[in-house]
Each structure stands twice: as C-alpha cells, then as structure tokens.
Design brief:
Length: 377
C-alpha cells in the first residue's frame, strides 16, 4: 500500500515482509493501549508501565497476525499451492498465493486454517489470563493476555464474515465452487458479496464521521480496501486463464526506444521523456549491450542544476529481477511481478541482450480483446 514491502526474515521457507502502512496501525495500537485501554483497566500505574504494556500488546498483535497467515501458508503448501511470501500491512496480513487452490476442498481447508489459528490463540490467551488471575501473576501481564484473547477472538470472527477476500468469503467461494463446479462463477458471487460488504463499511464510516465519530474514517478506508480487493480478485480469476501459458515474448515490443549512456540527463528529458512519454528507458553501451535502465523517478530525484552535468550512465540502475524478465517467462508471472513491485514496464532479456520491452498496458489490452471475443462467442 505504501510502496515496496520490507523483507524482515524467513520462517519455514516463507519470506515475511512488512508494508510501511503497518507501522501506522502499530503506532495507533500502541498509543491506544498505552493511553486509553490499560489506564482505564488498571488505574494508578506509572506511565512507563502503560507504554511497556502497549508495546508488548502491539508486538504480540504482530505475532498473532503472522501466525494467522502462517497457518494459511502451511496448509496451502500441503496442497501444492506455492506461497510467494507473507506481507503484513495496514489492515492485517496476506499470504500471497502464486495460484488458485486446486479444488474446492483445498480452498475450504486453506481458508479455514487462519480463523482456526486465531480461535486457538484466543483460547490459549484466555486460558493463561484466567490462570494468571488464579496464581496471582502481575496485573500488567494478565491485562495484556486478556487483551490478546479478545483481539484474536475478534480477528477470527471478523474474518469469518462471508465477504471475499476475507476468509469467510473464501469459505463461501469453496462451497459455491463445490456446488456448481465453476471457480469463476463462485468467485464472481463471493466477490460481489465482498464488494457489497465494502460499500456497507463505507456507508457506516460516512455516517460515523457525520455524527462526530472520527474512527469512522477507518471504517471508510477499510470499506474501500475490501471493495477494491474483492474486485481485483475477480479480475485475477479472469486474467489467469487468458495469460497463463503465454510467454512474455509474445507481448514484447521488439524495437524498444533505448538511451545511450553518454548523453546528459537533460538530453534524456528533452529528447526521450518529453518525446515518447515513457517513465522507463533501457540504457545501452556503444556495442548495444544492455546496461540497465533509467526512470523518470531517478530524474526527479536529481537536482535540476545537475541535469546538464550528469550523464544517463551515472544515473542508470543495474539490471535486476525487478526490472528485467526472461523471454520465456509466463505472462501471468510477469503481471504478478508488476503488481508486487509497482513497475509497469519490464525489459525482456536474453543474457545481456535486450529483446524488447513488456508493458502492463499491452498485457491488459490483450486481455480486454480476448475477453471481448470470448464473450461475443
């Protein structure tokens, strides 16, 4: 949501990433617990104690979200579904599946794993809370445990709402898929329910704000997220059969506009960016070998008085898996990479040879034409 996620660590073979938007919710949770929840529950403690409790609660919230998504990932792996990683962001987390589950049963079990883990954590924390009260554990410890029990129970219940892409929506999709045998139809229905639920949250958020409840802003943002995610999930179901199995070489521009490394940044702006209106250009040496690429973002970051003194070669980024792709790569993988990185143009390469440029616009144009012909037929 806030740019490229930051990779934290790897667990059980899954890369765990954090979106910068999660820092917002972590700060809000810490503040709410430290300034409002725990002082009301346990009055009279030192301010530092409340902040330690708040930080512990926020950290535990992070771990609970991770365990929730890790449960999805581990179960998905048993069904042969590849997981690209786990990303935590503003409204929770997501286990990034490379494809759809192979059957309705696998979809149901994978979706149910997350809420089951959250319910298990709720029971465990609740049990420790009760045991701590009986055994006379320090009040700050039992207060945090009680909070975690309520939090995990609420997380499980919210995720069971049958609105795609929430876990409950995936359970609904699995049931509909098993009933009618159509993943596309099941996704369309469950995504429609998710979109409607998003509209409901948006409406509740607007009403809350109009009544002076500022927390309604979060309902509004959550509603937008759910609605957009539901729509995107259905589009992905349509995109996958259209693009899967198609090599990116089919969609590349074989004669891309390239930039020599020796020209100035000012020359790049005047003769290339303003002329062709691209945000990324491949950079080549005198022998025509690919050196990397230069983007409008890099130019924007360079002071204006340096444009006529700096060359494109000094500014260019090296070729990397984020800005290049092999010609035989599946087009769906290219689309997924563009989605993850936010890069809409990739250089199609073979070693240090540039074969062309692949753009998001061309992939979507092909998809649109294919859908139009199939719908007509």
């Amino acid at each position: 949501m806030f740019g490229r996620p930051i990779e934290l660590f790897e667990i059980f073979g899954f890369k765990v990433r954090i979106d910068l938007s999660w820092l917002v919710i972590a700060a809000l949770v810490t503040w709410q617990l430290s300034a409002l929840v725990f002082p009301a529950q346990l009055p009279g403690l030192a301010a530092g104690t409340y902040w330690i409790m708040g930080a512990a609660g926020a950290l535990a919230y992070f771990l609970c979200l991770l365990l929730h998504e890790l449960s999805h990932s581990l179960v998905a792996r048993t069904y042969g579904v590849q997981i690209r990683g786990i990303t935590l962001f503003l409204f929770g987390g997501i286990a990034e599946m490379a494809g759809e589950p192979p059957s309705p049963q696998s979809e149901f079990v994978i979706a149910a794993a997350g809420p089951a883990a959250s319910f298990g954590l709720a029971l465990a924390c609740g049990g420790l809370y009760l045991a701590g009260n009986v055994e006379g554990w320090p009040a700050p410890v039992t207060a945090v445990l009680g909070y975690l029990g309520i939090l995990n129970g609420s997380l499980a219940l919210f995720n069971l709402i049958p609105a795609f892409p929430l876990d409950g929506g995936r359970l609904l999709r699995a049931i509909l898929w098993g009933w009618r045998g159509s993943l596309r139809w099941a996704t369309q229905v469950s995504a429609g329910v998710g979109s409607g639920f998003g509209l409901l949250l948006i409406g509740l958020g607007v009403i809350s704000v109009l009544n002076g409840v500022l927390s309604g802003v979060w309902l509004f943002i959550l509603g937008l997220f759910v609605r957009n995610a539901a729509t995107a999930s259905y589009h992905q179901i349509l995109l996958r059969p259209a693009l899967e199995g198609e090599p990116v070489s089919r969609f590349r521009h074989p004669d891309p506009v390239t930039v020599p490394r020796a020209i100035s940044v000012l020359g790049l702006v005047q003769s290339y960016i303003y002329r062709y209106h691209f945000k990324m250009f491949p950079v080549v040496d005198d022998a025509g070998r690919l050196l990397g690429c230069v983007t409008s973002r890099q130019v924007r970051a360079l002071p204006r008085d340096e444009w006529d003194r700096q060359t494109v070669g000094s500014l260019a980024e090296r070729c990397s898996p984020e800005n290049t792709i092999q010609a035989g790569t599946d087009a769906m993988e290219a689309l997924s990479r563009m989605s993850r990185t936010g890069i809409s143009r990739l250089m199609v390469v073979d070693g240090d040879r540039l074969l062309g440029v692949l753009s998001l616009k061309d992939l979507l144009r092909f998809f649109s034409l294919k859908m139009e012909l199939e719908e007509t037929r």
